Structures are given as C-alpha cells and as structure tokens.
Amino acid sequence: MQHILEFQNISKYFPGVKALDNVSFKASGGEVLAFLGENGAGKSTLLKVLNGDYQPTDGKYLLDNEEKHFRSPHEAIEAGVSVIYQERQILMELSVAENIFLGRMPVSKFGVINTREANERAAKIIADFGLPIRPETKVKDLSIAYQQMVEIMKACSRENLRVICFDEPTASLSDDEIESLFKVIRKLRDEGKIVIYVSHRMSELHQITDKVAIFKDGRYVDTVVTKDTEDKQLIKMMVGRDLGDIYKNLDRNKEIGDVLLEVKNVSSDYVKPVSFTLRRGEVLGFSGLVGAGRTEVMRAIVGADKMKTGEVILNGEKIRIRSPKEAMEHGIVMVPEDRKMQGILANLSVDGNINISLLDKHSNNIGVIDRKAEIEQAEKSIKEFNVKTPNKEKKIVELSGGNQQKCIVARGLATNPQVLILDEPTKGIDVGAKSEFYEMICSFAKKGLGVILISSELPEVIGLADRIIVMRSLQVSGEISAEEASEDRLLSLGMIGEDENE
Amino acid sequence: MSEKAKKRMLPQAVSGEKVVLFLAIVFVFILFTSLNKNYLSVTNIVNILIAASLVGMVAIGHTYLIIAMQNDLSPGSLAALSGVTVALFLKAGLPIPLAIILTICVGIVVGIFNAWMVNKIQIEAFIATLVSQMIVRGAAYIICDGKPVSISNQAFNKLGSVRFIGIPFAVWTMIICMCVFGFILSKTKFGRSVYAIGGNKQAARLAGLDPQRIILTSFIMMGILTSMGGIVFAARMNAGQPAANINLEFDAITAVVLGGTSFAGGVGDMTGTFIGIILIQAFNTGLTMVNVSSFWQYVARGALLLFALTSDYIRKQRREKELLEASMKNA
Questions:
Q1: Distance between CA atoms of B28 and A121, rounded to whole angstroms?
Q2: SS3 call for A278
Q3: What secondary structure does DSSP assign to A129-198, as a single string?
Q4: B266 to chain A: which residues are within 8 Å by CB?
Q5: How far, in Å, CA of B214 to CA of B193, rounded?
Q6: CB contact, 8 Å: B37 with chain A?
Q7: Residue A338 above 90 pLDDT?
Q8: How far apart, in whole angstroms, are the C-alpha atoms of residue B314 and residue B241?
Q9: How far away is chain B from the Cα of A14, in angstroms, using its nearest Cα?
Q10: Is A92 helix (H, G, I), strand (E, B) or coil?
C-alpha cells in the first residue's frame, strides 16, 4: 500500500501572526517532497503541526486516510512520524545503540536492560545504512554528520515509520557528508516512505527531491515536479510578484549625502570582520541567506554582542559602543528581526512600547515620568506611522504583526536617530502593511537618515536599496549598486559567493 | 454582548481581582472572629499589622524582583544578620544613627552580592539567593558566636514600642515604604524599566535599557528594605537573634503572588502586595489564635502558596487566551 499524508484546511495562529492559513495538500510515499518558501512562509510551522509540537488552530491532517491528532512529538513518533531537526535531538552522553532504542531498549524477563541485544540490533541497522560507526560509541564522540545519522537511524528503527521530515539537514554538513545523507534519503524513498525535505538550497532540490510544495506567507501555493520546473520559476512562485508595482510607485527621489557611518573590520564571536560605509540619505541593503552573518554584524555595531575587532566611525569621529543604550545615545538604532523575542514588550501597552526608549527624555531629574509628554508622543507616533489600534492603552500583543512592527519602528524613530538599522522589517507581515513600510523607509532616507535594510526578500532589497552588500558564510561576498542588481546576481553571490557577471 | 461593552469590561476585570482579594480578607476576618471573639479587637488588628510589618518590607522588595523576573530567598537570613549586626554595633557603643546606617550597608552589600551572582555568573536568582541564604545565615551566627545579643540601649528599643496615633513605628515604616516604593514602581523611569525587563529582557536591552543595572538596583533595594525591617524587628525584641526570621521570604513571596504579581514577569503592583500582606498575616495570626498547632500551620501556609500560584497560573492562562482570540480577530 502506498502511504498518503493529507493536510486539510490547516490554520495556525500565534498572537499577532497567522503562521498557516488554510493549507491543504497531499504527499505520497515513494517520493521526496520539498517544502520551499521564504522565511516565515510556514514550512517549519507545518512540520511542527504534523509532529504534534503545535496544535493546529483549525483543520486536520490524515495519514493513510485516517485522521490523526498528535498531542506531542512523542505521540507522532509512536505513530511513525519523525522530524529530524537542524539542532540535534539526541543524548550526547549515551551510546549510539542507546540513542537508537531510547525509551524502548530490549529488556529481559526481569526488566533488566539487555545492552548486548541492543548493540546487536543497532549494528544491523548501522550496517544497513553502510556507516563506519560502532553501536557502543558515545554519541558525543561522533562528528555532527554521524550524530545526525544516529537520529535518522533512530527514526528508521521504528517498524512503523511512515513519514520522515528533514528540516534544513545539510546546514552544517560537508559535500561528502551531504552525499551520504542523500543516499540514505533515496533509500528511504525507495522503501516507500513519505520523505519531506525542507531546504533553502536550490541546487539540492534538483539533486534529491521529486516534487516541490511551495509556500508563501503561510499559504500553500502549489506542488510542482522538480525536474520539469526551472529554478527561476520556483523562485517566482515562492516570492510572488504581487509587490512588483509597489516598488515602481515609491518616491525614491532624494539626495545621497556625505559618509555618515564607516564600519571597519567589525567582528564578534558570531561574525568575521566586515567593513562598509553608509551615507546620509542612503538605503543600504544587506542580502544573503539566513545565517550569513548579516544580523550579527549589526548586533556587534550596536553593542548587542561584544565587538571583538574593528572600529565604528560616525560623522568622521571614532565612537565606542558597548551596549545598545550607548548606540542609541550616538543615534544608531536597530529594529530587530525577531519581533516577539527581541522587539515587543508583551506586557506593556502600545503607549508603553513606543515610549520605552524615551524614559530619560520624559522624566525629570528624580526620575518621575511626565505622562503628558508620553501620551503626546504615543499619539503622535500612532498617527505618523498609521498604527491601527483602538487606543494607545491596548496591549501591544493584541495588534497584528504589522502594527506591532510599526510600534517598534516608531520607538526607534522617536529617539531621533541618524542611522536606522532594520532587520527583516517586513517578515511575517501582510502585503498591505509591507507597502506602508516601503514608503516609510523611503521617507526616512529622504529626511537624511542612513538606513540599513537587512532583507531576505530579494525584490525588497532590489526595490528599495541604493546599494546592496551581499554576505555569505559570515563575511561580505560582494557589493552591487542598485542599477546592476538582479535576483540572479544576488542569489549567486549569496549562495555560491560568485558574481555571475564577472 | 457588544464589542464595546466587552472592551470596557477589561480594565474592570483586572481591578476585579483586587476586589476578590479584599473579599478574601473579609472572609478570613469573619471566619476567625466566629471562632474567636477576640480576633476582631483593636489590639489584635494592631498585632496583625505589627506582624505584617517585617514581611511587608521584604514583600516590597519581592514585588520589584518578581516583576523583573528575579527572586530572593535570602531576606530571612539578612533580617537576622541585620538584627545581630545592629545589636553588636550598639553594644560597641556606636551612636544609634551610625549603627543603623552601617547595618543598612550590610544589606546593600548582600544585595550587590546577589545581583553579582545573577548578572555576572548568570545563576538563576532562585538558586543564587539560596547561596546567600546559607552564607548570610552563617555570618549571623558567626559574628555573635551563635548567641542572641541583647540590646540595652533604651532609646533604640523605643523604635520597637513607640506609637503614633496608636500605630507602632514598625507599621508606619512599612506603610511609608509601601507608599514611596509604590510610587517609584508606577510613576518613575526606574519602575517602568523594571516592568520592561520583566516583560522581555532582550527587547528591553535593545530598546536602550540596561537590564543588569536595573537588576542590581532592585537587589540593593531589597537589601536596604530587609535590613531596615530587621533593625526594627530587633528593636521590638530588644535583641539581635541569629536564628530569627527563618522562612520570612516564604510569607513575603506568598503575599506578593497572592496580590497578583506574576512569576511570569512584567505584571504586578504594590497595591496588590499590600492586600496580599494583610491577607496572609490575618490568616497566620488567625491560625495561631484558634490554636492550630504549628505543625499544621506549616501545611496551611504551604497550601496558601499553592493557592496563590494556582491563581497566578489561571490568570496567565486567561491572559494568553484573550491574546490569542484578539490576534485571531486581527489575522
């Protein structure tokens, strides 16, 4: 019998975000199905719904025509659904065999664990996979690639395995290791399992997947046969083109002034030395894959992470920044990517969130806050940024994602910065709010601010930035002016580190 | 119900929790008065307030710390150490103001030590302050060789007995501190920062606040308040006792959580803490007055904390549910 996995009208809401919106499609056994989509498109959320980590707000899923409702990843595994994550989910101090049979080690009549039998059975599975590791070895002594293999073997050791999902499995693997992973994936496919493969690397999709399911903004777009579809078309489907016209209508008529910010060889524990300059009135785009080090450079500049080397020169003067507070005092403000974890203060109102960076300005010398000034500022910001909220006392988490983001940007702008760093400012927000942000970004630049725009959405960087810096593997891999920029060039710089035009 | 009516009800629902707490106090009073007529006497009510005074001082500090997602298990030990310290200073012939100031400095040092463990060695506050609970208690025994130090300075002991408008000095100290620190919490830059780091430390830091400094200040405040409480307690007892005030922090934390301050951080206020203090002390005093054995009192106090935590949990669930519904409407 061929296994079939079917999603019917799955929706998942988080406060302020619609992560999955009425997703319906089928996957069949005996083929490798890729999930493709931008960050926040809903791929990982769907995996988590499938393995019981999240409960869907609406809709259901069926495995072999039987409705399932997993309340925990454990239940999903018991039913033959396993997800292999980027971060290892194995116990480092235990042996390979113990990990494979975790929670169901073979036991004797008296309940004593039979390690020898476990090792023998594990050895069989390992041989099946053709790996040069021993069942007694502690997992912490294995390479990352083999640790991942242990996880896969753990999933496969279940007789009833029907669905196995890989979430960006190759992120930390070498080419050889990737090849042996692919061998295993093909083997699973040939055994008739449903294999789901999430990756950002286009080249891999053609190597390993049979079909591609495309997601965009929490919605399922379509499933296509990989070998019949060109990369360009896949990208087009995943990015969508409904924003195309918005960029044309933007008012980008402005004057680019003197050098405002000079960053020289700035590095931290998380990023290699990076240098760039930013001019007044300029929108400087930062492109590249997730994990390329774009956020990390900015965090080092604003003092959120400790700067290891390098210097920052603002208006021709060398400055030293040890914390985001000091960055703010110098007029450098960062609006972080992860709104929920690093942006909003969930317990405070819209008012409280907008005013939190202005406490010094709004309080007298013994620290008492001038509520009148705060209220004025909040009302001004709400109007200026068109925040849709019934009143300023509303808790910020009750607003939609886009409106929350407006509050965070308003908070930063209220401090009168010279440099504004926006990290994925339109991630996870709807199209309407996106275009409002684009207009805002242009107006900030027009006022003479230097804007740094980190974005994984290529049309967004191309449509907004005057100059684009591409990062790859924690360093700068190239710089392109707005006129020369194309999605292909950005992608090849970001993924392979080569400029197609050179 | 119309949308508008629902919206108007929301703030009322919050203050509704206070009404419930107030009703709980009324219930406790009725219950114990029916069991013992003397419960509702002026003397007894003043006794409740006196007993509440030291716990109250500590609870003020806990309100700040718990809102900031911190905690402190060392106040019981510090109150005892402060009592012994001030007694020893007075015995050595130091003038009263100097003895008090130096003792408060001891509280400040303990606060700095707690904040240092939390900020610099990144130990969870709950565990870090368990360390100081032990060390500080040990210090209290060491400096007096394990024996209570009696205080013969009558002017100092007067702090424990003097009354204004029938209310003892200890109670006035607590009430004034509550008003002052309640004002700081709700109206000042510092208070707002405490809420902000309790709500989301990372976000607050990126928004230009200095979480480590705010945590340091909160622990120092706790040190000062506890030492002050310990000094007044010693004056009431006419002695510094190294074994005193065990489990003091337990009652204070119970009161704070009963008063609506959430262990999830970022939520709470001083009015709630005040009501919580009165409730818990009325409860504890009542148990003693109706001759519940001290063994069973332990069980009852544990049950009360469990009750407080359960209601904290229910409130949290309700907040989350409301948010989810709101966001579904938006999406």
A1: 65
A2: strand
A3: HT----TTSBGGGS-HHHHHHHHHHHHHTSTT--EEEEESTTTT--HHHHHHHHHHHHHHHHTT-EEEEE
A4: 345-348
A5: 7
A6: no
A7: no
A8: 40
A9: 7
A10: coil
Token pair 């920029």 in the structure block, residue? A485
Q: Do A367 and B328 touch (CB under 8 A)?
A: no
Q: What is the mean pLDDT of residues A271-292?
A: 92
Which spans in A342-430 are helix H?
350-355, 371-384, 401-413
Give the three-class secondary structure for A427: coil
Q: Is B47 on the interface with A (CB under 8 A)?
A: no
Please give the domain boundaries of chain B with CATH numbers for all domains: 3-329 (1.10.3470)
Residue B55 pLDDT level (bands cut at 50, 70, 90): very high
Calpha distance A457→B311 (Å, rounded): 45
Alpha carbon distance A488, A481 (integer Å):
14
Rounded average pLDDT over B183-196: 96
**Residue B30 CB neighbour total at 10 angstroms:** 12
If residue B319 lies in a helix (H) or strand (E), which one and from where to where? helix B294-330
Q: Name the minimum distance, in Å, from the CA of B134 to any CA of chain A.
A: 33
CB within 8 Å of A162: residues ≥ 6 apart: A3, A5, A29, A63, A64, A79, A80, A81, A193, A194
**How far is C-alpha A123 from the chain's CA centre?**
37
Cβ of A336 within 8 Å of Cβ of B206? The answer is yes
Helix (H, G, I), strand (E, B) or coil at B34: helix
pLDDT the model gives residue B189: 95
* Choice among A81-85, A177-181, A473-477, B22-26 with the minimum mean pLDDT: A177-181
Query: Which chain A residue lies closest to B188 (C-alpha atoms)?
Result: A368
Judging contacts by C-beta atoms under 8 Å, the chain A residues touching residue B211 are none
- Helix/strand/coil for B234: helix
Measured CA distances, B125 to B65, B234, B285 (Å): 9, 28, 30
Are B203 and A336 an interchain contact pair (Cβ–Cβ within 8 Å)?
Answer: yes
Cβ-Cβ contacts under 8 Å between A and B: the total is 115
Q: Which residue has the tokens 């035009």?
A: A501
pLDDT tens track for A137-173: 998 888 878 888 888 888 888 888 899 999 888 766 7
Query: B135, exposed or middle or buried, with CB in 10 Å at 0-12, 13-18, 19+?
Result: middle
Strands A475-481 and B149-150 come out as unpaired
Rounded distance between C-alpha atoms, residue A32 and residue A211, angstroms: 7
pLDDT at B66 exceeding the cut of 80: yes
- DSSP H or E stretch at residue B203: helix B201-206
Q: Is A307 left (phi over 0), alpha (psi -120 to 50) or beta?
A: beta
The rounded distance, in Å, linking the Cα atoms of B84 and B81 is 5
Contact A356 B7 (CB under 8 A): no
Token match 């009696």: residue?
A: B150
- Give the pLDDT confidence of A84-131 residue by residue, as tens digits: 876 667 888 899 999 998 888 888 888 888 889 999 999 998 988 888
Tell me the Cα Rg of chain A.
25
In single-letter form, the type of residue at position A474 comes to L
Higher-pLDDT residue of A203, B133: B133
Q: At what angle do helices B154-161 and B96-120 cross, to 10 degrees?
A: 60
Q: Helix (H, G, I), strand (E, B), or coil: what is residue B36?
A: coil
Closest among A497, A437, A490 to A461, alpha carbons compared: A490
Structure tokens at B11: 């703030």
Q: What whole-number percentage of chain A has pLDDT above 90?
A: 46
CA neighbours closer than 13 Å in the CB half-sphere of residue A252? 14
Confidence bin at B7 (pLDDT 50/70/90): very low
Test mutation, A18, A217, A323, A334, chain B, max B CBs within 10 A: A323
